[in-house]
Amino acid sequence: MKIKFCVASQTGDELRYISKAIESGQLAGDGFFTKSCTKWFENFLGAPKCLLTPSCTHALEMTAILLDIQPGDEIIMPSYTFVSTANAFVLRGAKIVFVDIRPDNMNIDETKIEAAVTHKTKAIVPVHYAGVACDMDAIMDIAKRNNLFVVEDAAQGLMSYYKGKPLGTIGHFGTISFHTTKNFTSGGEGGLLIVNDDNYSHRAEIFREKGTDRAAFFRGDVDKYTWRDIGSSMLPSEVQAAYLWAQLCNIDKLHNARMNIWNEYKSAFSHTNIQHSGGLSKIEGSHNGHIFYLIGEKNNRTYLPKFRELGIQATSHYEPLHSSQMGYKHGQTSANMTNTDYLSSHLIRLPIFASMTSQQAQYVISAAKDILT
């Protein structure tokens, strides 16, 4: 049996909606499907402003602009994350301050954040790894007491919650990814900027439209649009939005299918001595089954070839940013990174996707038990 690590979610309606987008003659963005997705997110998330972007990377870069990050500012985040989390702020000249992660959920250790705060700190960027919530109460409290911004990197977090609140809606900004590897996709790339502080809504809309008030013009709010601020092209195409709209219209079906596989993994590994993501997290909230991982006793390089021999594309995940070439150049660690270093070299992600069958899951489970025990 050959089992890919990830298969992009499909509902069967994507091509039909993409055809409608093409027929509309408005492929450049902010057409019917972009507006439909935007309205859906604002209603679902309860956020003042949601803006679709070409990728989550673009959404993160927008937050750095909106917060007016300057050279010398410090940004606190985990090292165990994708490079875009750091790049968005490094592009503005910021210094990244890496904080170690918790061993129970791979998220930033909130008890170590305050020690990393200096007079140069501008923002905290918690990353909700695997769609499992960080301790946002503690993080928001630290931010409030130190007059800091919070940008939630909820790239993996759509349909996940912290104490009833959707991830991405708790900090000043949130970002979500619709990359092909995520639970819900817009056909390859795609992202969402969630603006929770309405003071930034107007400028976010202008920046996204090349620094113009073009969106206001199309709404009829102004007679003509003009250059109002710095900006860039941060609109996805209507084709991306059409693909995503098909996913949103079937989001419960896709979510439940993925959770069924995640829970099948959890049930199987709960009766073993193998550490796994289903038995670790203690944060109050519900997750979306984005990742199911195991923690091996040996380095993951020991196990991964054995999975491949059986046709299973199990993988490791991020290489810690603090130990990368660019991490040395643009970042620093606030203290030891013991958990990050150990867990990143021992974590094994199992295949999981909405169209995965129980038969495939059982094959992976049987192989993993043989390999890791």
Please tell me about this protein's structure.
- The protein is of the alpha/beta class and 373 residues long.
- The protein folds into 2 domains: 14-248, Aspartate Aminotransferase, domain 2, CATH 3.40.640.10; 251-372, Aspartate Aminotransferase, domain 1 (Alpha-Beta Complex), CATH 3.90.1150.10.
- It has 13 helices and 14 strands.
- The strands form 3 sheets. It has an 8-stranded mixed β-sheet, with helices on both faces. The protein has a 3-stranded antiparallel β-sheet with strand order 7-6-11, with no helix packed on it.
- Strand 4 (121-124), helix 5 (136-145) and strand 5 form a beta-alpha-beta unit.
- Helix 1 runs antiparallel to helix 8 and helix 2 packs across helix 8.
- The longest helix has 19 residues, at 251-269.
- The mean pLDDT is 96.
Q: Which key phrases capture this entry?
A:
alpha/beta; Aspartate Aminotransferase, domain 2; Aspartate Aminotransferase, domain 1; 2 domains; three-stranded antiparallel beta sheet; globular
**Which strands sit side by side, in order, in the main sheet?**
1-9-8-5-4-2-3-13
Q: Sheet with the most strands?
A: 8 strands, mixed
- Do you know the CATH topology of the largest domain? Aspartate Aminotransferase, domain 2
Q: Count the E strands.
A: 14
| H/E topology pattern | HHEHEHEEHEEEEEHHHHEEEHHEHEH
Mean pLDDT: 96
**Architecture (CATH level 2) name of the largest domain:** 3-Layer(aba) Sandwich
- Return the domain count: 2
- Radius of gyration based on Cα positions: 21 Å
CATH class of the largest domain: Alpha Beta
Low-confidence stretches: none
Share of residues in helices = 25-40%
CATH superfamily of the largest domain: Type I PLP-dependent aspartate aminotransferase-like (Major domain)
**Separation of the first and last Cα atoms:** 21 Å
Q: Which strand-content bin applies to the residues? A: 5-15%
Give the overall shape, derived from the CA principal axes: globular
Number of helices: 13
Structural class: alpha/beta
